[in-house]
Amino acid sequence: MARPLRMDYPDTYYHVLSRGNEQRPIFNTDKDYKKFLELLEKTKGKFHLEIHAYVLMRNHYHVLVKTTRDGNLSRAIQWLGVTYAGWYNRRHRRSGHLFQGRFKSFLVEDESYFTAMCYYIHGNPVRGGAVKTAEEYLWSSARAYADKDAEPAWLTTEIMLSMAGGSRKKFCREQEAYVSRSNSPLKELRHGVYLGSEEYGQRCAEMARGEPVAEKPQKRMLLRYQRREEMARWILERFGEKDIDLQLARGKKRRPARELCIYVMSRVGAYTHKEIGEVFGIGYTAVTGIIKRAEGYLLQHRVQKVLAEKTLNEII
After folding, report:
1. How many CB atoms lie within 10 A of CB 168?
2. Cβ atoms within 10 A of the Cβ of 277, count?
3. Is residue 6 scored above 80 in pLDDT?
4. What DSSP string runs through 136-167?
5. Are 209 and 202 in contact (CB under 8 A)?
């Protein structure tokens, strides 16, 4: 099974979710909840994260975080999970996996989407019927947003509260209204990678370079946000072409750089032959033939083959 795409960057908002193995409980007693929060505080300090919101349900948890100087979200959440699981297993005299595989995470574009996620996360216990209002639930940050005296020093609330003009009462009113509408920002989650606009998707595609496409179906979808002609021009530049418009001119004229560009675009795995052909004004059957010719050409021209592989590696 392909692993989910991990994109760890500094100064980036994320939503993190992890569930118990086979949907079993990961919290059984108040001491379990308290220990997890203690470790969450340590994670914040150890990995230089900002913790903006959280909720601990019996068999899963959600956390809203922002990385600061380091792009180290994966290391941080892995440390949190491994440390808590070891403690939990010792305390409850059990063995085996506590969590269901690797944690899930996705990027969040900005504060507006982040606030919607905060409301959604705080609404988990309400939707589950555990409480009537989010602030009643003991094991979430909703109480900290409602009451400054309940706010731990390690929780960052300023950004969320600023979206409500700095008013805790207004924040709680807007949160209650949001939860009552049963809204879910996850409906706007794109390709299982990010929550945001199409323009943000373009930036995510740029940031995703370096992840192996073959193992990351989400990245193939992200690369589709990169305009095909823009991608073609970039590849042709890597092959040292000066007259790029000539290479992109419609028609079936054979030009080595043009054919190598088509070959590289096909190897990226993000575009169909029809979509590649549209960039060069040719049909998908012509694209298939060009790819075969390019493969033969590269077998005889080692320098060009090395350049093609280097270009492909820069993309994926």
Report:
1. 17
2. 19
3. no
4. G-TTBTHHHHH-GGG--TTB--HHHHHTTTT-
5. no
Mean pLDDT of 267-274: 78
The secondary element (H helix, E strand) that includes residue 34 is helix 30-47
Residue identified by tokens 């989910």 is 4
DSSP string, 109-122: -SHHHHHHHHHHHH
Domain limits of the chain?
Answer: 13-199, 227-315
268/247: higher pLDDT: 247
Q: What is the pLDDT of residue 2?
A: 39
CA–CA distance, 207 with 192 (Å, rounded to integer): 15
User: What separation in angstroms does the CA of 73 have from each of 12, 17, 48, 246, 308?
Assistant: 10, 12, 10, 45, 33
For the chain, give the percent of residues with pLDDT over 70: 79
- Cα Dmax for the chain: 73
Residue 149 has pLDDT above 90, yes or no: yes
Percent pLDDT > 90 in the chain is 46
Q: What are the tens digits of pLDDT across the range 72-96?
A: 888 999 999 999 999 999 999 998 8
Q: For residue 189, what pLDDT is reported?
A: 61
Please tell me the CATH superfamily of domain 227-315, with its number: DnaA protein, C-terminal DNA-binding domain (1.10.1750.10)
Asked if 51 contacts 142 with a C-beta cutoff of 8 angstroms, the reply is no
Fold match, 13-199 / 227-315: no
Q: Is the dihedral of CA 145, 45, 121, 165 positive or negative?
A: positive
For residue 62, give the H/E element and its range: strand 60-67
Instruction: Give the H or E element holding residue 207.
Output: helix 198-207
Fold of 13-199: Alpha-Beta Plaits (3.30.70)
Residue 43 has pLDDT above 90, yes or no: yes
